[in-house]
Structures are given as C-alpha cells and as structure tokens.
C-alpha cells in the first residue's frame, strides 16, 4: 500500500450509488487512496463502464459499508436516500445532489429516520457527464458543502468531512436553505444565462460567429451541459433561482432603457454603473486557493507548433515566475495563439523583460 493510500481518512467500505460523473469520480479518487469502493447503478452499462475504468468494484449483496454516497439524478435522490438508510441502518448516508432543501423536505414528510443522513454537495463537475468523463481530480481545491443539523452526531459529521478531505476538497458547513440560495446565485442562474446567450447563436450568421473570441467562449462554456439534468436541478431549486432571475431581469431592463436613449440624462451613468458594479463583483470572487488576491496578466504570443507552450512554462520557471493561472485563445485561421498568464504584480516586469530577452512576443499586459 502506498504512502498516499495509508493517509486515507475514510475507513471501511464506501458504497456509491450512481456511477455517473460525480459517483465515478469519487470512486476513482477513493480507489486511488486504497479505499474499498462498491459501485451500484440502475444502468448495467453505466456500471460496467465505471468498473472497467477503475472507479471501484461491483457492489455485492453482503457488503457492509461504513459510508453510502448517493450520486443519482435529483428527481430520485430522496427515494434512494430512503432506501439506503433502511438497508444500511448503521452506515452514514450522504448525497451529492446540487439541491439540498427539497430532498430533505421530502424525507421528513415521509417520516424517514434521518439520524445517520447528512446532505452534502461538492461544487465540482464538468460539462459532460457519465462514467467516461469521470476524473479523480475534479474535487481538488473545490468547496464541499456539508449540511448538518441539530441531530447530526460529531462522529457522522467527521465521516462526511473525511470524505471531502480525502478527495482534496474543502468542507464548508451550511444550512440547506443557505446552500440552495448560494448555488442559485453562483451556479444555477449562471447556467441559465450561459444557455440563453448561447441560444442567440443558433440562428446567427456564420460571419458573426467567426468573430467569436475567448470572452464569448468563457461566457458560454457551461451552455454545453445536459438539458435533462438541469431541468431537474432548476425545478428543485426554483424559488431561489427565480429570486435571482427577477433581480437580473430588472437590471437588464435598466440597461436596455438606458441604451434606447443613450444621450438622455443619466443614461450613460446607468451603463457605467452597471459595468462598475460588475468590476466590484468580480473583485469579490475568490482567486487561487480561495484567496481574494488579484493577479496581473501578461499575454504572450505562442506559435501553433508542438512544444511551444511547454517551452514557455519552462522559461517562466527559469525566470522564477510562478504561473498562477492560464487562459489560451486561438484566433480562427491564425498560426499562433495567445497565452494569458496570470502572475503576482511584482513578477510582471521580470516576466516581460525576461521573456522578451528570450525572443517571446508580448501582446499586452494588464497595465497596457
């Protein structure tokens, strides 16, 4: 057993119900730590695929898990939680659904004993689902919300937090209400906004879309998500989502009214205030490692040939410049790309002068 495997906090068998993206990803991460992972799924094909890719073994009738992770679609989450609590009364049961209040209400209405149930939600994922898209590293550095209540024992809470820590995530305690309001703002409404914007492209002229740069790609990246899953998520968290959408609609109406008469008194200020408020909001977003720390950007022109990006990273390392973040942009038809490198402010001059001395072309910096 490797040193990493000996460091696993979760003990015993972990049963994962649902071998899709999140379930299989959890399985991969725990299996890499040497944890016994038993997978179950209503889809035989999905289960076979997850097992073949190494996310765990098939669950057996005589398994006695210490922890059950429910990773199924939102419309069946409460049903599966109820079943698993009844089948394994000594195990801690958690789920990873992106809505927490609706399943909890359903279980309470049925009179289910929730002593060993703790809802949780890793803020991680990918645009594409399924076991084939699963990755062990998608939880690293991501928040993992844990929704305890007055009945939650310290021991059971420790088990769920150990799961999050083993997967490299950061446990955060919230009430189900707090969680659902938060994800409405930072996850569910952004999904709708991205989808609505990308929907404008369907009938757009090809010539217009040929002008698309990295900004619009960043803004619409999550529009590739699965509609059938998001119908369930948005339906289960409809009230908080509608609250944010109503406020957003009012903001959009204000800007639209201002632009209908851009020379009217106060119109330009309304637009400027909208952009400024966006600046302030972006500044509040946590940066690398959760820090509210801002970086400067250096944009480097990189030839579209093998090995150039690796050479750039290597030479930045020689210059003792740490790459805090990276974004790549390719212009259609161009034989080069733009690498936007985020660095700490004090490293900008060293990066620019050092790279230029090595023959790199600097397209721009934050201060340009």
Whole-Å distance between the termini? Answer: 53 Å
CATH H-level superfamily of the largest domain: NAD(P)-binding Rossmann-like Domain
Which CATH class of the largest domain applies here? Answer: Alpha Beta
Can you tell me the CATH topology of the largest domain?
A: Rossmann fold
| Order of adjacent strands in the largest pleated sheet | 3-2-1-4-5-6-7-8
- Low-pLDDT residue spans: 1-6, 288-292
Structural class: alpha/beta
CATH architecture descriptor of the largest domain: 3-Layer(aba) Sandwich
Rg, Å, rounded: 24 Å
Average pLDDT reading:
90
The fraction of residues assigned to DSSP E strands is 15-25%
Order of helices and strands: HEHEHEEHEHEEHEHHHHHHEHEEHE
Q: Could you describe the 3D structure shown?
A:
By secondary structure, the chain is α/β, with parallel strands linked by helices. The chain has 3 domains: 172 residues, NAD(P)-binding Rossmann-like Domain (Rossmann fold, 3-Layer(aba) Sandwich); 103 residues, 6-phosphogluconate dehydrogenase C-terminal like domain (6-phosphogluconate dehydrogenase C-terminal fold); 76 residues, ACT domain (Alpha-Beta Plaits, 2-Layer Sandwich). It contains 14 helices and 12 strands. The strands form 2 sheets. Strands 3-2-1-4-5-6-7-8 form an 8-stranded mixed β-sheet, sandwiched between helices. A hairpin with a 5-residue loop joins strand 10 and strand 11. Helix 4 packs across helix 5, helix 7 packs across helix 11 and helix 11 runs antiparallel to helix 12. The chain is globular and about 65 Å long. The N and C termini lie far apart (53 Å). The N terminus is likely disordered.
């Amino acid at each position: 057993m490797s040193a990493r495997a000996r460091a696993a906090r979760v003990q015993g068998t972990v049963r994962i119900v649902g071998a899709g993206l999140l379930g299989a990803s959890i399985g991969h991460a725990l299996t890499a730590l040497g944890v016994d992972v038993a997978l179950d799924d209503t889809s035989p094909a999905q289960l076979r695929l997850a097992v073949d890719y190494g996310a765990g073994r098939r669950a057996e009738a005589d398994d006695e898990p210490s922890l059950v992770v429910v990773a199924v679609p939102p419309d069946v989450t409460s049903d599966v939680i109820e079943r698993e609590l009844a089948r394994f009364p000594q195990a801690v049961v958690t789920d990873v659904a992106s809505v927490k209040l609706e399943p909890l209400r359903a279980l309470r209405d049925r009179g289910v004993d929730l002593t060993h149930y703790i809802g949780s939600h890793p803020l991680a994922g990918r645009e594409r689902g399924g076991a084939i898209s699963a990755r062990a590293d998608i939880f690293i550095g991501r928040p993992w919300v844990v929704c305890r209540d007055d009945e939650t024992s310290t021991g059971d809470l420790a088990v769920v937090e150990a799961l999050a820590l083993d997967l490299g995530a950061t446990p955060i305690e919230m009430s189900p209400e707090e969680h659902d309001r938060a994800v409405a703002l930072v996850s569910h409404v952004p999904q709708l906004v991205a989808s609505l914007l990308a929907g404008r492209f369907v009938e757009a002229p090809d010539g217009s879309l040929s002008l698309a740069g990295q900004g619009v790609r960043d803004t619409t990246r999550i529009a590739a998500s699965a509609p059938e899953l998001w119908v369930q998520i948005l339906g289960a968290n409809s009230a908080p989502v509608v609250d944010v959408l109503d406020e957003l609609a009012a903001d959009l109406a204000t800007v639209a009214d201002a632009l209908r008469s851009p020379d009217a008194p106060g119109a330009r200020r309304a637009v400027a205030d909208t952009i400024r408020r966006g600046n302030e909001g972006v500044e509040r977003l946590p940066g690398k490692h959760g820090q509210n720390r801002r970086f400067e950007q250096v944009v480097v022109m990189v030839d579209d040939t093998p090995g150039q990006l690796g050479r750039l990273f290597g030479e930045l390392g020689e210059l003792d410049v740490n790459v805090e973040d990276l974004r790549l942009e390719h212009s259609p038809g161009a034989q080069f790309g733009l690498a936007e490198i985020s660095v700490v402010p004090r490293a900008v001059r060293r990066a620019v002068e050092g790279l230029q001395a090595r023959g790199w072309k600097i397209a721009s910096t934050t201060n340009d």
